[in-house]
């Protein structure tokens, strides 16, 4: 079966089978290098993507669900101002996120930044729980997200 979707700003037309996972299609047919199926259970975050600005684990998602959706990967975010701001905020004060969770944490943070102007702290903590990393305190993640939102709001007001 053929499906079409938007991947990182470009229209993709792919041929899939009913048994294929989104992860497999994105890696094999779309050449996305940032994704891996480390656990294949939607636990580790190495397969995390955003679908219509919502986090999704591509290793447990049928490829058919990509149809007519807007899919974004970390490759797309690394080119944005939002990514630079969030990355800077997360790494302030010497905090470093482990490489195995960095992409998932950045995507989770970006989903929050894009989705709401004032996320509640419990929403931020809940989001981080889906890509938990011992290297990043939940409070630091919350502060990074809130500071990024504040910087973006200020930048939008400045002519």
List keywords for this structure.
globular; oxidoreductase activity; iron-sulfur; Ubiquitin-like (UB roll); 5 strands; 159 residues; 2 domains; iron; 6 helices
What this model shows, in words?
This is 2Fe-2S ferredoxin-type domain-containing protein. GO terms for molecular function: 2 iron, 2 sulfur cluster binding; metal ion binding; oxidoreductase activity. InterPro entries: 2Fe-2S_ferredoxin-like_sf, 2Fe-2S_ferredoxin-type, 2Fe2S_fd_BS, Beta-grasp_dom_sf, Diverse_Oxidoreductases. Residues 1-77 form the 2Fe-2S ferredoxin-type domain. The chain has 159 residues and is of the alpha+beta class. It folds into two domains: 2-75, Ubiquitin-like (UB roll) (Roll), CATH 3.10.20.30; 80-157, no CATH class. The chain has six helices and five strands. A hairpin with a 2-residue loop joins β1 and β2 (10-15). α3 packs antiparallel against α6, α4 crosses α6 (138-157) and α5 crosses α6 (138-157). The longest helix has 20 residues, at 138-157. The model has no long low-confidence stretch (mean pLDDT 86).
Strand order in space, largest sheet:
2-1-5-3-4
Q: How many runs of DSSP E, i.e. beta strands?
A: 5
The percentage helix is 40-55%
Poorly predicted tracts of residues: none
What structural class is derived from the secondary structure elements?
alpha+beta
* Gyration radius over CA: 16 Å
| Integer count of domains | 2
Strand content: 5-15%
Order of helices and strands: EEHEEEHHHHH
In terms of quaternary structure, the protein is single chain
Shape: globular
Instruction: Supply the number of helical segments.
Output: 6
Report how far apart the termini are: 48 Å
Largest sheet entry: 5 strands, mixed
Calculate the mean pLDDT score and round it: 86
